[in-house]
Design brief:
Elements: H1 3-8, H2 19-38, H3 45-56, E1 59-60, H4 61-68, H5 72-84, E2 88-93, E3 96-104, H6 106-126, H7 132-149, H8 155-166
Antiparallel strand pairs: 1-3, 2-3
Helix pairs in contact: 2-6, 3-6
Length: 167
């Protein structure tokens, strides 16, 4: 049974799920939907995470390991995939020849734009029952939970910066 078949079915509950279990269920569904939606772009959700980070700023492989929170060997595999597709460029850091800087290529920007459109459709599906104010509130709450739990760092600050830029 494909992931989309598992996540497209509504399941009747016989218990009241906790907020954490709801996040687990929603996370699994979202991952399946993202995986399916990204197939035409040739990317996976993990590839997309790397491209988002590199698009924000060219960075070293070590900084990517820390910011994405992935095992170094897995990151190398992801970077190899993206480089083989011509989506990123790895170059030596002129200030420290031992380091590689990872940058988005022109093709990477185009593919990322297509992936963002696909991701937007998934988010629309995921949050269809929420109005704009509820989505904004949920985004803020999730950012706060990610920051304070140690899962991600800087989410709240990035939301503030993003809000200022879009105002």
């Amino acid at each position: 049974m494909a992931m989309t078949e598992l996540t497209d079915k509504k399941h009747a509950l016989s218990y009241t799920p906790s907020a954490g279990m709801l996040l687990v269920k929603l996370g699994r569904a979202a991952e399946g939907w993202f995986t399916e939606a990204l197939k035409p772009t040739g990317l996976t959700p993990r590839h997309l995470g790397v491209l988002f980070e590199v698009d924000a700023h060219p960075t070293s492989q070590q900084a990517l390991i820390e910011s994405i929170g992935v095992d170094p060997s897995k990151l190398v595999g992801l970077l190899n995939d993206l480089e083989a597709e011509g989506l990123i460029v790895r170059r030596r850091d002129p200030d420290d020849r031992r380091r590689h800087i990872v940058e988005l290529s022109k093709e990477g920007r185009a593919r990322l734009a297509a992936a963002k459109q696909a991701a937007s459709k998934v988010e629309e599906r995921l949050f269809v029952g929420l109005d704009a104010a509820q989505r904004k509130q949920l985004h803020g709450l999730l950012a706060q939970a990610a920051d304070t739990s140690g899962v991600l760092e800087g989410c709240i600050e990035m939301l503030k910066v993003s809000a200022k830029l879009s105002a």
